[in-house]
Fold each of these.
Amino acid sequence: MESPSLGVALPESIGPYIALMGVGFAVAILGHLARSRWLVAVGVIMIFLATLLFPLALQIFSDEPPPPGPRVPRAAI
């Protein structure tokens, strides 16, 4: 039995990642204003998740195959 891939759980549009990043900044700023280290940490983690998940989703959902490697001629025998 195959497990579902991570690509199924990630949204294809940029909106959720921008929203997660914006909310992360807001939570971190609120944490700084409230002088709450755990709130700042949660905000920073949200920002890092948004910046990590977005490129990963772009790679998974891209329809273009990776570029081919260089062609190395075979040695004559």
Amino acid sequence: MTIDWIALLQVAIVTIVAAVAIVGLMSLANWLLGPVGAESPPSAGRRLTGQVLIVVMALIILGGLYLIVHEHVARLLGFG
């Protein structure tokens, strides 16, 4: 049994980058959706931007899950 170290390094790098991206997007969305100044609600532009960031973050997570399970689901449904 041999280990493909290059592939393992690629997986580690992608995992770290994805984790940093997801945490960064969530932090930015939280900052945009939070109260501004003296507890005033965020403006419509900030609210929309924060919501878009949450959707982008969800798409990144769903894309990663798809990459993990797509072959298994296809086999279960009889496509593979």
